[in-house]
Amino acid sequence: xxxxxxxxxxxxxxxxxxxxxxxxxxxxxxxxxxxxxxxxxxxxxxxxxxxxxxxxxxxxxxxxxxxxxxxxxxxxxxxxxxxxxxxxxxxxxxxxxxxxxxxxxxxxxxxxxxxxxxxxxxxxxxxxxxxxxxxxxxxxxxxxxxxxxxxxxxxxxxxxxxxxxxxxxxxxxxxxxxxxxxxxxxxxxxxxxxxxxxxxxxxxxxxxxxxxxxxxxxxxxxxxxxxxxxxxxxxxxxxxxxxxxxxxxxxxxxxxxxxxxxxxxxxxxxxxxxxxxxxxxxxxxxxxxxxxxxxxxxxxxxxxxxxxxxxxxxxxxxxxxxxxxxxxxxxxxxxxxxxxxxxxxxxxxxxxxxxxxxxxxxxxxxxxxxxxxxxxxxxxxxxxxxxxxxxxxxxxxxxxxxxxxxxxxxxxxxxxxxxxxxxxxxxxxxxxxxxxxxxxxxxxxxxxxxxxxxxxxxxxxxxxxxxxxxxxxxxxxxxxxxxxxxxxxxxxxxxxxxxxxxxxxxxxxxxxxxxxxxxxxxxxxxxxxxxxxxxxxxxxxxxxxxxxxxxxxxxxxxxxxxxxxxxxxxxxxxxxxxxxxxxxxxxxxxxxxxxxxxxxxxxxxxxxxxxxxxxxxxxxxxxxxxxxxxxxxxxxxxxxxxxxxxxxxxxxxxxxxxxxxxxxxxxxxxxxxxxxxxxxxxxxxxxxxxxxxxxxxxxxxxxxxxxxxxxxxxxxxxxxxxxxxxxxx
Length: 729
Known about the structure:
The chain is elongated. It has a two-stranded antiparallel sheet. About 70% of the residues lie in helices and about 0% in strands. The chain has a domain at about 595-729. By secondary structure, it is mainly α.
């Protein structure tokens, strides 16, 4: 067969076999086209390549352009099969006088025709061609060659057809298609726009896998899109606003993209725009805020003005959407605005290196207060039928972020909403799987196509814990929370979360939010112990909580890096033990003895004697483990010392147990080895409180203290109460 015949075969698409014309069209009239059937027969009976080419040419003459339907395509496939296209695709030599790619072009054309059938597009013989097809996207050649362009079009049609099958995206990613598409787009050769469209589809279908397989190439595309976005002066900047969120990596955005993205958004949002132009920009900004916090916003005047603009726009959108009853809420846009408001809350509460100046903070707090009022108004209208909708979850989340920092304003409205919040949190707690799914839906709603990270926890209760911690200090809100059953819910939640940290679970894979949530629960319980002691005594859930604290602390104090949680558990347990001292569980049981031994370990290891250069006397200093977190720990430590002191007279077995631990002896030894001037008055008071109660409670304790030079030490530190107690028989 001549090269001219091959070239003619390469133009099969113009007669209905090229991919671009393989769309279903008019069906044949009743009865098949006899001429076509004869030529298909010849195609089936072809004995060599030349006969197959000739038959294909005859088929194209019998089938008018655009007049091929699915059944006809299937008959052509039945006649040709995969063997012949396979040979064409792998052919490395073309007939004399023909371009190198002519045989491969015909093979791709046939394959694209077959891929118009979804069943064939998922055929293993198509899927195993993905690596070969991907190489065609980046192959070099004459950009003006019509046959090569047609081949590229057919290649994209094949890959797009595969992507449309259920398992197609996974096969394309494994076959190297993502990298090839990135390179094709960055090369800006023929069909680069098709490469971008297919990339968008693959990222939407399997973002994590795409980034895992082709991160460097995808980052290169992101950098290119960011530069285009920064330079765009026409309507393309709005299109890029919609594209860019899909190309932001699931972890963090490369810093080299920050400037371009921020500059592009500043130009858009600083202009007077319609909602369809502004909303994609707000969603892109929200995605960046979710991924990078405020790192992508430059420091200085321009950055602070831009951040203030973002938050103001977000608050206006929230109020417009939620204050008007009956207005259709664009939930994806409002959820994006929530993310920007969270960024505003974080920056307004940041003391060091905040992007905002104080007047800007005051102004933003004012507008955010109005927006939060609109959120509360919306949530008050939510019926039980809507409680499981992702937008409600997103609205509770932003309210939780606000209450974590501010509870004094909108107090009346917050109190009015508290019963709903307790019921809502209880509903999602009891249906934890649905809560996790809601978190995923919220992330998909506006922030990102990725799975939520630790900043988007899947239970509503964790979102509300910081706010409830503040509210339990106030009489009115606390009474509402107690009336609605919040303490019982919190106990159940604490016990459930505690199970995640117990032996047998890999705590290394737990997000930090789990431990932070446990600590916040402890703070809430501490507030209740102080402000509502009667509740602790009468509610059975606190007895269960006390049992868990007692059995858990001994192992917890031995674990590295968990000192702050241990401090919370120890202090809470000691304070509750004072209130529950008559409980059988605290009458010298193994669990109670183990708990107090662990509490003594926590309290006794906080300080050590440290030598100072040029001085014969050591000074009292923090232990290395305590030193780095003492700012967060010291209040709990002093409260724990006070609570232990209060437990001694209530539990007769405790003083002998403390003596066996040698804590009072070692404490006096420590004080005797350091300079009294290095011990702060509040430390002296805390130590004296414990020593006095132990001495009063037990004669053997008094004797042991005297043997440890207790009277002399008491005199040096002006511990009058201890000195008097030890001087008595």
